[in-house]
Metalloprotease PmbA (Luteimonas notoginsengisoli), 452 residues
Amino acid sequence: MSPAAPAHDDSIDRLDHLEAVSARLLERCRAAGASQAEVSCSEERGLNVSVRMGSVETVESTRDRGIAVTVYFGQRKGSASTADLREESLQATVDQACAIARFTEDDPAAGLADASLMATDLREFDGWHPWALDADRAVDLALACETAGRDADARIANSDGASVGSGESLSVYANSHGFAGRDRSTQHSIGCALIAGQGDSMQRDGWYSLALAESDLASPASIGRRAAERALSRLAPRQIATGEYPVLFASEMARSLIGHLLGAVSGGALYRRASFLVDSAGTQLFPGWFSIHERPFLPRGLRSAAFDAEGVATRESALVESGVLQRYVLGSYSARKLGLATTANAGGVHNLEVAANAGDLEAMLQGMGRGLLVTELMGQGVNNITGDYSRGAAGFWIEDGAISHAVDGITIAGNLRAIFQAIEAVGSDVDPRSHVRTGSILVGRMTVAGGE
């Protein structure tokens, strides 16, 4: 893709302005008698276009701003927000937060994260790559993507459209400890969804590319062709017999398994005792070779950050090591509720990496021999309290280490504890489009409900 002409980058000036607003708000909170206060200010800009069957469907340009103020009077908390930067609106927001705090009950877990934990090394991690993209150029890229897909094969009968998006985000978090942290990031995407076949035999699939820098995106034509290949591969699905089989989650589906782990070890679920992994820190959840590490300092990482949503310094650490759950995922509030220390995960995790012990997808298929390759999951079907797992799925039946035919309308089921223990391999085919970086995951045995 040929880059557009660079535009003036005013991000530093805008961050300076947001930081100044944050400082004024904190001073107003102190003047109102708050014992502690924190402020989050953000600005976002974006352009999104979509096309379908060669015609423009939508062109959307967005600009959003948000300012959130939280005050603490001892252990009573109040929060209010606004998008208006006028001085009277800022004062009204502080007044409203203070009024709420005065009428709430004491919460022993309330308050800022400890001052000693605030980040001091406020580096950037190469996450700011504005794309000087105008609507006409975005439409051209979307049309090129869809056209490449539609022209790939005569069996591509229809399209669900193609889209191009580009966004910028600026944020400042500041608190009464004297901490002020700034972040700026960009994210760009190109995607396409196509329909193959006719009548009752139609199948839909798609593909997309996502990156922080436009130069890291796949070309529109390659995305369109990949979408076509995926849609075509799903034609003429066949039923399989219900039974227990090895199940290989393609990398873009495998990260959902890690997502279920994160949901179960997050502080909110744990202190409410709404997780099947309550009191599981230090226990063996996975095979002995399995590990997950948090890498918050990756250059161009999708969730790289020097500090979390409370200003706490992030750090590289193991979530799972040698199959053992090393810790939970906590901010300061949930940590206090559990009698533990924050893990610098207020706002979420920062770039999880699941260590591979196998080769690419083709090698994993050969190693599996016979079973199910899952390329799509449908429905929720996961009980976070019991760990019971049951989801609709589609993908491919594997025989002799190679794809035999497409399958759909099936259900895969088990319990997440047993699924985690039954993981036999993690591939090297990492999907880069997520902050959960994992290759394909092979589960040795799951219940598969087919149509026979």
In short: Confidence is low (pLDDT under 50) at residues 1-6.
